[in-house]
């Protein structure tokens, strides 16, 4: 296993496996009880329509760590595991 320091990830570009530029690493979010890495908090690319993505109230993208395919010069995100609002909506009641 290769170890990577969190400080080295700051400002690394995030790109999906389909070539969509998502943005750049802004921060990481951990579970404070377990220490498990949960999400990458990313500053979105200026051309990205963030309306379909899960974001913070500041407009930062929340990328689940489970969607990360590889980390190198860029971080490759599995687009099928990317959290988008349409996947998270409950089926709810239909009138």
From TrEMBL:
This is PRC-barrel domain-containing protein. InterPro entries: PRC-brl_dom (IPR027275), PRC_barrel-like_sf (IPR011033). It comes from the Archaea. Residues 1-82 form the PRC-barrel domain. It comes from Pyrococcus yayanosii (strain CH1 / JCM 16557). Pfam families: PRC.
